[in-house]
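Shipment paperwork, digital attachment
Item: protein structure file
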Amino acid sequence: MSASQPLRVSARTLAEFTYFQPDITPSSLAALQAGTKGHLNRQSQAEGRAEVPVFWQGEAEGLPFLVSGRIDLLQDAETPPVVEEIKLCQGDAPPAPHPAHLAQALCYAFMLAEKEKLAAVALTVRYVLPEGDTVCHFSQTLSHDALREGFFALLMPYARHMARVQALRQQRDESLSALPFPYPDYRKGQRDMAAQAYIAIARRKKLFAVMPTGTGKSAAVLYPALKALGKGLTRQVFFLTARTTGREAALKEVQRMRKQGAQVRGVVLSAKEKSCPQETMRCHPDTCPRAKGHYDREREAISQALDEGLWDEGYLQKLSERHQLCPFELSLSLSLYADVVVCDYNYALDPIVYLQRVFDQNRQVTLLIDEAHNLPGRVGDMLSTSLSGQKVILWRREAGKLHGRSSPVYKALTGLLHALRQLDETLDAPPDSLQIALEEVSPVSHLLPLSAGRDLYRFVYLYRRALGCPRDYAAFIETEGKEKRLTLQCLHFTEYLKERTRKKRGCVFFSATLSPLHAMRDLLGGDEEDACFALPSPFPEDNLLVMNLPVDTRYQAREQTAPQVAAAIEGMYGAHPGKYLVFFPSYAYLRRVAELLDGETLPLHVQTQSMLDSQRADFLRRFTGDGRPVLGLCVLGGVFAEGIDLPGLSLIGVCVVGVGLPMVNPRQEKLRGLYDDLFDNGFNLAYRYPGMHKVLQAAGRVIRSGEDRGVVLLLDERYRQGAYQQLLPPHYRVQYLGDAAQIAPMMQEFYHQGGIQP
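Attachment content:
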């Protein structure tokens, strides 16, 4: 690494590398607010300058460093100047300053002494209340030499650790320089896609790409990203997915490239609830033995992990068991050292749970966003929130048990409950009384159970965001028994997503169903200068038969046309028995048609609501376990409609009932109106595009390789309208049928041409 590219580290990180809190302890909104309030009040009450930036640049262990930070309060009119570090006092007054707090102040004092050529600096660690009043303080004056000695005593252990990390990165870069494409040949269009992704990263731009099934999308984006990593064009790659299956595909490509010599390290981030080894997840040192002293044991585990290369769920569980660590917290710590982080969207995009330790410290990150057609719904959900009176009652009951009915937290929750009960369903926005109640409950939220405190934190955060961006939100007030529920639904997330992806080292949004590209680019926060790229299907067009039967599947006509749908399904299956999936717009419609199908002669297998993981696995085993025919009935947009891979004879046909439009409801209508105002494209963005994305994802389950041969049957008359036809892929050469009797001869001719007999 050249001197022009120093390793950046904050004074706080440097101090906490040596002096750290050993336990995993929950944080609360109240504590964060109180700390900020205490800082501001102390700074406003005292003489001197607040938030004074300082930095030091130099070498340690042969590495260039840039250490920086902000002095909470600098009294430079004093002789010597006084550097003050302000901390919130939680509980009793400490008998001495916390070593990390003192070390942080020492770093600031040293950097000030270096900059101003000072012989000595006084440093104070002051513990305050939220009002800014001093509980206690600890002061000392140190010479320039003493400050230097103390600073390097902190820097050298960190530098030795980073020297090892940098050596590993140097080996990584050399290996990536020689890394060939992980397959013998590029698939059709794959090289062009890789080139486009590399250009986006090199130019720090966004790329929006349609990559049909079979184009090898994971390799096409990961390979150029790792090449860019090896050249220093980015420092870290995040592969963001919506589903577990997407994470598995990315992980498979990382493993493949590692086998070919890429010395890259990857970590998979899973949900805390899924990775927790305890029967009941209680993240507190008093209740979880792994939370107690976690960080005392973690450093050795990280050192061992650095000798390995791929930190997937299995590896993390074993390493955590060996060192008695929390697997989730260990994975978060390893994310700082990983070259590739494979995780859900929310770790990069959710305003509450995104990885602050990564994204607040390092802007040189590349985002590879898989199945990007899911982003509108997911980001909208991330920015939406709700609060019900029933939930507040449960919180208040717990608070009463823990603290008594006369406690401040019980009284504050009572006020919040009353404010919710007074909500008027005819109002477009919450009244001021609710905001006042929230302001009263926030300072005592740390007294709530952990899960309740988190829920309240999210609601308050997003409530304030909604107040600041009223056009982006719609408020819905519903009555639930005797109580009220307030939902703040985020309708417009484009600017938020644009900001979240701004200044990254390239962002690649890709999906098989990201059409129409320019409209989706605008919706997902892209600019006109950001590239759009579409690949054709790499598979022979003759291997896919797409048929359309004009059936009215609109809600009001479903009962009348259900027999037509059933007849079409039976005709498709009867023409060439095998393994089929049928997708319906709702469970109710699925059940109605299932009643009309002959369950004695057809091998029906029906998706049900709230299926367990084991039940989902059993459903899929019917398709992969043996060669017996099966006719699966599923819902469009569900777990079996995308992200599953059923190649060859595991799936030879899909029937999609309807065009997938979201139900008309107040939220969708508000969304439609907003998109009309913003993009003059309301119905398409709110209804038609999301619907067709679901349709094409479901249909894309059929052809998974160049050898696959299969059928797609689209049941709806709207597929004959130009607005829907132009959203179908170019390789869909649709055969428009007059009635269900034409399905069987059409399919039989299709298979006969392929040399396959019924």
